[in-house]
Design brief:
single chain, 235 residues, mainly alpha, 8 helices, 0% strand, transmembrane, transmembrane helix
Amino acid sequence: MEEKILDKVYKIMNEVYPEHYNDNFISNKQIYIEKFDKVFEEIEIIYNEKDKYNLHWAYKNAQEKFNEAFFDIMDEHIKPEISKYKDKIQDEQILRIKKISLKMKKKLKRRFEIFSIASSFVFFIDVLFSIILILIISKLTNQGKSIINSATLSSLFIAFMAFSKITINKFLISPKVKKFGWNMYKKSINKYKKILAVLISILISIEDSISKDMGKDEIKLILKKVISLKNKKLK
């Protein structure tokens, strides 16, 4: 079973922000966390049933679905929450939170671009291997025809080489290219989840610190801890 964003939020809160762990504030975020999880569930179904789907279409579909969900939820939930803290957080800290959010948007945008580039790259590799095979087999076929004088044997040799090309492409090259593409697809999904879980965990921690009147220095510390999350592996 695939790990949900909520599970990642619990991990981050326990490992990075344990002093701000608050079930009530986590529950308050579940409305849009569940929306994200629903999008990821649809995307992951395609991965789990990848034999039924075209890889290039899968990349494009994932990009469109996630792009729409992310920016809708940012506008409907996350931005209003950040604005809610204006009277209790310094302007520079509000700016820092917005910068973190913007940075995460840029990371997601780069991931969207990777989707497109990867899709094109997979297609290019597939075509390139096919061309190389055709050139090699054409050369071998011409050499074979010069060696084999019989018209029947020449025809059989050409048929054998053509069959070999199709077999190598179908059972050796194409599966490897597709495996590479689908692995990148899966890794991108996991990256998306982590980025979203980090952003949600920051909001929960800030909300908790404000409710406890812990002061503005604590919010600075929360924001500094984002750096530690860059290298932390949350599978």
